[in-house]
Design brief:
By secondary structure, this protein is of the alpha/beta class. The protein contains four helices and 39 strands.
Length: 346
């Protein structure tokens, strides 16, 4: 489908600078632009590409100052990154929506399946499960007994949702993720370990997106809860009885131990780890590979390092660490001098 610069500007509240009738039918990175494509420029490091790109239309910020004329038509907006995100959402919504139950799917007679639902080949829908209107369940996905899934959800291939778990509306779960596996609960005894039955559930609220091969464990009792708007990357581990607050985002390979509570609007870098039974305050920023072992202070605190600490303290410690070799040599020299002085006094 083709759109003009004028139509796009009206959609996103932008201002056209150049040919309003410039037509586009695809997206391209600005450095890989081609005729008939729309690109965007938000990072100043990429500004030089604007003068060479072959894209027909480029979204730019209102405050961008041109060094000289450019070939593409520009659409000026308050935030080019947000604008292209909106356009991509519109583009995604225009893709064909699959519906129907494949003949090779297994749907229990007691399951409730809503309108315009898609269930792919070899998917399994368990006894008493509820699938909301417009939800898509791709091949080889397993929905356990008593699971409730809301409207407009998208579960990609090989997702597993264990019995009794609850998923809200407009939730996306990418391939290979497991929702509701047993929490890691074992009680040591003289002969080994007794398994502690995990009888709780996982609750995922509306507008959550979960990356591929991420695991969210069911609670020992009660629930593990992922609040509205949370975005989880691939390969994340959320242990039993954890809670992640609204609109928090986590990069790949984050690990949470049991009963950890993460506040709302937090940002967590890749491979960060959280000890169990701690509380991370709202709007906390946690750096990559950070090790958080205690409650945080809040108020937009930023943490880096392991154990987690204020960035200024961390960089000071790193500076000392880098000098450790020289300091060690100095200590050896001083020790040698002291020993020589002791011998001369005898």
């Amino acid at each position: 489908m083709e759109f003009t610069a004028k139509q796009i500007a009206e959609l996103i509240g932008g201002r056209v600078e150049g040919n309003e009738q410039a037509a586009v039918s695809s997206f391209a990175k600005i450095e890989e632009g081609k005729e008939g494509a729309i690109s965007f420029l938000s990072n100043p490091k990429y500004t030089h590409y604007l003068y060479d790109t072959k894209s027909s239309v480029v979204l730019v910020n209102n405050d961008l100052k041109l060094e000289h004329d450019v070939a593409p038509t520009l659409i000026r907006v308050a935030n080019a990154y947000e604008a292209v995100a909106r356009l991509l959402q519109v583009y995604e919504s225009m893709k064909p929506h699959k519906t129907g139950i494949d003949a090779l799917a297994s749907v229990a007679s007691t399951a409730q399946v809503g309108k315009d639902v898609y269930i792919g080949a070899f998917a399994v829908i368990g006894e008493g499960a509820v699938i909301g209107d417009g939800t898509q369940v791709y091949p080889h996905t397993v929905i356990g007994d008593g699971v409730v899934i809301g409207t407009g959800c998208l579960l990609y291939p090989n997702v597993t949702v264990y019995q009794g778990c609850q998923i809200g509306n407009h939730v996306t779960i990418h391939a290979g993720s497991v929702i509701g596996a047993d929490g890691f609960g074992f009680a040591p005894n003289q002969e080994g370990y007794d398994k502690i039955p995990q009888i709780g559930i996982v609750v995922i609220e509306d507008d959550v997106e979960i990356g591929a091969n991420t695991c969210i464990d069911r609670s020992t009792m009660g629930e593990t809860r992922i609040h509205r708007g949370v975005k989880l990357d691939n390969l994340i581990q959320v242990a039993h009885n954890c809670e992640i607050g609204e609109n928090t985002v986590m990069s790949a390979q984050v690990g949470m131990a049991g009963s950890t509570k993460i506040g709302a609007w937090c940002m967590v870098g890749g491979q960060a780890g959280f000890a169990g039974h701690i509380h991370v305050a709202d709007k906390t920023n946690v750096g990559a590979q950070c090790g958080v072992i205690s409650n945080t202070k809040g108020n937009g605190e930023t943490l880096i390092g392991s154990p987690a600490m204020d960035p200024r303290e961390y960089f000071k410690a790193v500076a000392y660490w880098k000098r450790m070799g020289d300091l060690t040599q100095e200590v050896y020299k001083l020790k040698k001098q002291v020993e020589e002085m002791k011998r001369s006094d005898k």
